[in-house]
Amino acid sequence: MKNRLKVLRAEHNLTQAQLADILEVSRQTLIAIEKGKFDPSLPLAFRISRYFERQIEDIFHYEED
Amino acid sequence: MKTKMSNLKTQTRKNTLQLAYWTASWLVTTAIATFGPIFLWSDYKLLTFFAIIINLGAGVGVILANIRHLRGLDELQQKIHLNAMGIALGVGVIGGLSYSLLDTTNLIAGDAEISVLVMGISMAYLIAIVAGNRYYR
Questions:
Q1: Nearest chain A alpha carbon to B78
Q2: DSSP string, B85-104
Q3: SS3 A3
Q4: B12: three-class secondary structure by DSSP
Q5: CB–CB contact B77 A24 (8 Å)
Q6: In this structure, which long-range contacts are made by residues A2-11, counting pairs with CB atoms below 8 Å and at least 24 apart in sequence?
Q7: With an 8 Å Cβ cutoff, is B5 touching chain A?
Q8: What are the tens digits of pLDDT across the range B100-116?
Q9: Chain mean position to CA B49
Q10: What is the ipTM of this complex?
Q11: Rounded to a whole number, what is the distance in Å from the CA of B66 to chain A's nearest CA?
Q12: How many C-beta atoms lie closer than 10 Å to residue A36's C-beta?
C-alpha cells in the first residue's frame, strides 16, 4: 500500500519525531509506514486522516501485487 | 499529544523495567531451586518444594510482565515481536523434536538437555527481533 504521508508531513512542517509523538507511535513505526514497509492498522489510519483532515483514500492507495 | 507520547514512552520504560525485575527474580529463584538442595539445605525436601513454588510464582510474574510489556508496545513493535515469537516457536517445536530424535537414535553423545533447547529458542527469538528491527528501520 502506497501513501502520501511523507508529503503531508512536509506540508505541515513536521519532523518524523513530531508526527510520531502526535500519532502516539514510535518513530520507527512512522518511518516504516512512510517507506511503505508497514501498513498501519485501521485505527491508526483514522488517526492520521483526522490529524491531516483528509479522507483515508486521499492518503493511502491500495495497489494489487 | 506530546504528553500522551511522553506517557507512552514512560509506560514502555516502566513495563520494560518490570519485565527485567521479574526475569531477574525468576533467574535467581531458579538458581536457588537448582543449587539450594545441593549446596544450602542438603536433602531437606520441604525447603526444595518451597523453593520450586516460589520459582513458579516468579515465573507467573514473568509471564504477566511480558504480556503487559507487549501490550504497551505500538503496533509495529508488536508485529516484530509476534514474528519473532512465531520463529522461536518453530525452532522450539521442530528443532526440539529433531534434537530429541538425535538423542533417542543415539546419534549424539549423552542425553538431550532442555537447557540446550531453551538457549536455542532464546537465540532464535533474539536474532528474529534484531532482524525485524533492521528490516523496519
A1: A29
A2: HHHHHHIIIIIHHHHHHHHH
A3: strand
A4: helix
A5: no
A6: A2/A36, A2/A60, A2/A61, A2/A63, A3/A33, A3/A34, A3/A36, A3/A59, A3/A60, A3/A61, A4/A58, A4/A59, A5/A30, A5/A33, A5/A34, A5/A48, A5/A59, A6/A34, A8/A52, A8/A54, A8/A59, A9/A34
A7: yes
A8: 999 999 888 888 888 89
A9: 22
A10: 0.87
A11: 19
A12: 14
What pLDDT, on a 0 to 100 scale, did the predictor assign at position A32? 95
d(CA B6, CA B24): 27
**A41/B1 Cβ within 8 A:** no
- The residues on A that touch B, with CB distances below 8 Å, are 20-22, 24-26, 28-29, 31-32, 37-38, 40-41, 44
Residue in B1, B8, B76 nearest the CB of A28: B76
Residues in chain A with CB shorter than 8 Å from the CB of B2 are: 21
| pTM over the 0.80 mark | yes
| Residues in CB range of B2: below 8 A, 6 or more apart | A21
Pairwise CB contact (< 8 Å): B2 & A28: no
